[in-house]
Amino acid sequence: MNRFSLNDKTALITGASRGLGKAIALAFADAGANVVLVSRSESTLLKVKKEIEQKEGRANIFPFDLFQVDEVGELFHRIRAETGHVDILVNVAGTIFRTDAVDFPLDQWQRILTLNLTVPFVLSQSFARACIDGKHPGKIINIASLLSEAARPGIPAYTASKGGIKQLTMALAVEWAKYKINVNAIGPGYFETELTKPLVDDKAFTRWVKESTPIGRWGLPDELTGAAVFLASAASDFITGQTIYVDGGWLANL
Ligand SMILES: NC(=O)c1ccc[n+]([C@@H]2O[C@H](COP(=O)([O-])OP(=O)(O)OC[C@H]3O[C@@H](n4cnc5c(N)ncnc54)[C@H](OP(=O)(O)O)[C@@H]3O)[C@@H](O)[C@H]2O)c1
């Protein structure tokens, strides 16, 4: 099982204050990584850091608003200066806005595309530059979605961003394989988090999720972490450009 260990690795995880990002951060710390946690809320990040340290794990926090795209490169340099080389980058931070396409405001379109697609690209650039210059291998994990494969009405920007992140994963994978940087994505099905709370609370939607997911329920954030640890570890060294769906069978269901 050593090939699944993240001992001596440093992993930067965005969106680590709650939901799927927090679950991944806790699992990486359990697997031995020093985790670097990024999100806007300092107080929430501090709680996650404390939770990790109570279990003998190691965590650093960098509160930052990723909408400040122009400063993301500087953030990455600051992180490296304080924590040393970053071996693993997990782009989790994301957001959604729900309105019919015909009325969808341009500023919301730009916000969603920025956080869900542009920020992962810009952070990946900084990460890859550091890996290439230092001749280090690296692992990038993006968070895709069922919306990378299919669509529902009312979330056009989110759907475009998640289609884009799947394609970006392949684009970076083929370009950076020669530097031993693996780039993969995880496509979660329907998971209970703050992002999906309005849907969890909607009885009709929850009934639809249960009916269309063969396993018959919402996913729990911890259930995403096996795939994340695998894609971050040496056990996945020959896998790149893939999106692994952790969806309770949703995509397999006709
Ligand atoms: N839940 C699902 O069913 C599901 C399904 C498919 C894909 N996904 C994807 O999985 C990812 C995480 O989703 P989630 O359900 O865990 O969402 P969530 O509970 O809403 O968490 C989002 C995370 O992103 C951070 N964040 C949001 N805006 C930010 C900003 N401007 N700068 C820095 N950090 C920011 C939030 O922290 P702060 O508020 O402290 O900044 C939080 O840590 C997203 O990319 C989402 O699209 C989720």
What do you see in this structure?
This protein has helices at residues 19-30, 42-54, 72-83, 106-134, 156-176, 197-201, 203-212, 225-232, and strands at 10-14, 34-39, 58-63, 88-91, 138-143, 181-188, 243-246. The protein is of the alpha/beta class and 254 residues long. The chain has a single domain (2-246), classed as Rossmann fold, CATH 3.40.50. The chain has a seven-stranded parallel sheet, sandwiched between helices. Helix 1 packs across helix 8 and helix 3 runs parallel beside helix 4. The model has no long low-confidence stretch (mean pLDDT 98). Bound molecules: NADP nicotinamide-adenine-dinucleotide phosphate. The site of NADP nicotinamide-adenine-dinucleotide phosphate (NAP) has 29 residues, from helix 1. NADP nicotinamide-adenine-dinucleotide phosphate is lined by residues 14-21, 39-41, 44, 65-67, 92-95, 115, 143, 145, 188, 190-191, 193-196.
Topology:
Layout: E1 10-14, H1 19-30, E2 34-39, H2 42-54, E3 58-63, H3 72-83, E4 88-91, H4 106-134, E5 138-143, H5 156-176, E6 181-188, H6 197-201, H7 203-212, H8 225-232, E7 243-246
Parallel strand pairs: 1-2, 1-4, 2-3, 4-5, 5-6, 6-7
Helix pairs in contact: 1-8, 3-4, 4-5
